[in-house]
Amino acid sequence: MTIKRLDHVSVVVEDLPAAIAFFTALGMTRAGEASVGGEWVDRINGMKGIQVDIVMMRTPDGHGQLELTKFRSPPLVAVEPAVAPPNAPGLRSVMFAVDDIDETVARMRAHGGELLGDVVQYESQYRLCYMRGPAGIIVSLAEELA
Predict the structure, then answer these.
(1) Nearest to 111 by CA among 32, 24, 29, 33
(2) What are the DSSP calls for 50-78, one per residue?
(3) CA-to-CA distance for 76 and 63, rounded, in angstroms?
(4) 20, 30 in Cβ contact below 8 A?
(5) Does domain 94-144 fall into CATH 3.40.225.10?
(6) What are the pLDDT digits (tens) for 56-99?
(7) CATH code for 9-73?
(8) Could you check whether 9-73 and 94-144 share the same CATH topology?
(9) What gap in Å lies between CA 141 and CA 73, rounded to an integer?
(10) I need a labelling partner for 146 at 20 to 30 A (CA). Which of 13, 52, 100, 111 fits?
């Protein structure tokens, strides 16, 4: 048996409204939201007393989703380093194809996005960059050329 699809990627954030604004500026739309808690949530996470607010963000093509999760209980725990460098183990980045990388970078900067390096061109195929977004996640942007 094979998987059917990648359903979504989850990002735990401290500031849910700011994260929603960041990914809305990127071009995603709110697909749903809920407050979640209870025994099943505790059991699946292996923790007790979980209360979270979740907002699902959808890509314009309707296929990709990002789950933004804000823990109300238990409190967030510190991770060292809080803002991991690109070579840290774990989730590296989430990449989005964009129409205009320069315009997208400008919009994301207005919502707290921080360019990690430069916008670079890869051969004659792409312009690429990495930006740091909510909760330290690295958002990769790719503009296809030609």
Answers:
(1) 24
(2) -EEEEEEEE-TTSS-EEEEEEEEESPP--
(3) 30
(4) yes
(5) no
(6) 999 999 999 999 999 999 998 888 877 777 788 777 789 999 99
(7) 3.10.180.10
(8) yes
(9) 33
(10) 111
